[in-house]
# Entry
Amino acid sequence: MGYPHSHELEVGTILSRHFGDESARRLETWQEYGGYEALRAAVKMDATEITGIVKDSGLRGRGGAGFPTGLKWSFMPQEPNGPHYLCCNADESEPGAFKDREILRWVPHLLIEGCLIAARAIRAEHVYIYVRGEYFPYTRILNDAVVEAYEAGYIGADILGSGWDCELTVHIGAGAYIAGEETGLMSSLVGGRAEPRVKPPFPAQSGVFGRPTTVNNVETLAAVPMILTEGAEWYRQWGTERSPGTKLWCCSGHLERPGTYELPLGVPLRDIIYDVCGGIPGGRKLKAVIPGGSSTALLTADELDCASTYEGMQEAGSSLGTASPIVMDEDTNIVRAIRRTAEFYAHESCGQCIQCREGTAWVAKILHRIETGGGRLADIDTLYDLCEQLTGRTICVLADSVVFPLRSSLDKFRADYEALIGGRP
Amino acid sequence: MSDQTVTLTIDGVEVTVPTGTPVIQAAERAGSVVPHYCYHPGIPSRPAQCRMCLVEIEGQPKLQPSCVMVAQDGMIVHTQSEQALDARRSVIEFLLLNHPLDCPICDAAGQCMLQDYAYETGQLSSRYAEPKLVLGRDRIADDILYFADRCIICTRCVRFMEDIAGDNSLVVAQRGHKAYIDTFPGKELDHAFRGNIVDVCPVGALVHEDFVFKARAWDMDTAPGICSGCSQGCNIDVNVKENQVVRVKPRFNADVNGYWMCDEGRRHLVMVNRGLRLDVPMIRRGDDLEAVTWSEAMEWIATAAPWGGGGTAIVDPRLSNETLFALRGLLDAMGIAGGGYRMPRGEEVSLAGLPMLKLREERAPNGAGAELFGFSEIEELPDIESGQALVVAGDRLLDAAPHYGTQAGFYVYLGTHLTDAARCASAILPLAGAGESDGSFVNFDGLVQRFHQAMQPPGVSRPGWMAINRLLRQVDADRPPVRDVVAAFDAMAAGTPDLKGMTWRGLGLKGAPVRAARTATGA
# Structure
């Protein structure tokens, strides 16, 4: 799908304005577009000032959890006592999500600039961008941009003559979903297995190389330069009080116009599906949508009138997650879709916590058996029980991630399960 | 409330613990044992990954892993709440999904934390209707087998090697439900302390090859011993079946070996008693050695020995303090001053994560004890002057020249093996070997430690102190009898300034330092 998308609801001003414009990858053009002006402003500000502006903007983390970015930055030690690090989480692996990819691919300099501003805000001396292993074509684009930025003096020693030094390294993962979990990412970055660990200590206390670290998502960091130049109030013209700004929506599945759209937070989900994305091909009906990437609860056709904000999606019983709706039409075999999702999580479980290691695989096997005609009604009870056992008892939330789509499918599409089981007790 | 302690309530019991104590340890103090797999008190890293030790803490929305939750003042903990029990039950159910349930042929059966907790949670049938995953088994080290299907991936073995041994050859391979333990590509698990990974394994996934299928846990007798492989003095449990040592495991002693021991020590006791054992006293009749009763041997030696005539003594640093002390009495009666012992030596091996524990260069347990009783180290066997008396105790004289000792006027050999040099003796007294008697050693650090009899010595062999005291009573009927090891130790302590004030019972199983005893008595 080419760019630019055009729809009246689309904002396209912050992140996606130059999507589709290959020349924007080059520093020369990027500077013509006003690139690195925010960094010029940032090097004249101190850390507290930058953090204050981002706090005021209400920017929330775009990696899925929606934690307020400015607040996260303020957790970093204020008194310098050794190196701090910034990790940019570009290990975008959530099935359905492809927003960070678009940023890496089209506007790498926007990300680099955001990283440097954030690094200044948290007093980091080194930025690591951890890119998903499968994103090697986009890593190449990012690397070219990093080289250009180094040559232009935007990264390295004495940035823009300010006396401030900051290095940036692009690190490529080896292809594990769990490396996207922040503690797993940091472990992988320093050469360990991508295994999450118990918090506390939080990354701001002990992260990369045991030093205070902040981990931010690509989309979060890419939003920072414009917030800094245009101001917090400008950013708040979009979205709601609790979910300000714009968001990239990665819409996939049975849609007329799937793709990545930058929309203000708060557009009803129904409008995103039927208006922005043109509805479902062939005029078929919508059966279900997983709104925030595969780890969020299914919504049915009756539940689409929720506002696409962090709080709105929560009220609807799901989650904004990575804002990656996967739309399924009326012909979709829900059990099959959930089985495929469960298989993904079973495959990606790091295997530390026993519940997750054994439970996700068990769920996948039961679903496979139901799908292929070997199911029993007792399996539904077992699946419900497994939802209990997999919730809130593990180090990270990977096990919980399989529960949201599973439990919601059992609640809302029990008839589909029973039809495949055919009454066997 | 002081800065050093916190007080909390666990299962209704108020308990005060040092600041920084994890809840799982505080619970133990309060009398609640929280089931766990990945947590091991001797391994510093705590990944909290098995999720077995989850407990309910009032005010916390989720169950918390008690191995990493630090006890706080006023905390109210429930280890047996409905939620905690349910979580534990489900962990066991998950672990059993793909477990082969091969307890009948598993060497860990009876000593298995999975078996124990499975019984405790009482799940008699499985809801699992899927085919089990089969991973098979592997030789993970030269002498250690890995049964992947039994493995619960608690990573204790990997973390022992990393944290304590400082060796990164062992890793988790693959991930998720396909994960297993393996050596890192191109590396071998050949560390001298690798055997501890078998001990830390809470199930039967890691088994020593020389133990596999040898004995069921309930068929073995266990006695607390001291490893005689080097001067470290590691505390051990000696597992015996049908009077054979089948396995040696480390026994916890915070001051000596923690939870660990080296592989050489494990093998030592299994092998040291092998060979042609002496099992009956013998006396020389012309060219022949004749088996006799202890009484006959005692009478014969009492008559034939040149009492007070002087001579040479060779003892061994593997003999117990009690035997060495009794020997001192015998040598005094024979007019032999001093005496030498030879110390076997080997390469020292240390542990990166635990500097106090080493496989020591001195490869015998009681050099310090020998010094204590007036013996000194010699490199070479002394020349025996013609017609002189010679007493050899313990040393097998395997490197002695042919007919060593035949030139002596009187030669008594006390030992465990019928070696060529022993055959040259005038009289041979069969002694109990390692693990075959009670006694004590003094380790490299001056710590006096008790060891206990684990098996029967062959034939009519006796502990050295018993044989020698019997002989001394034969010579001097007024000597008080030494009926058991308690009397032998207490008499020794009373007669040795460095041990004054010590008693066998007071020593207990943790040992006491020689020097402290000296300070206590002001000597």
Summary: Chain A has a mean pLDDT of 95. Chain A touches chain B at residues 176, 178, 193, 195, 197-198, 346-355, 357-362, 365-366, 369, 376, 378, 382, 389, 392-395 (CB under 8 Å). The CA atoms of residues 183 and 196 of chain A lie 5 Å apart. DSSP finds 17 helices and nine strands in chain A.
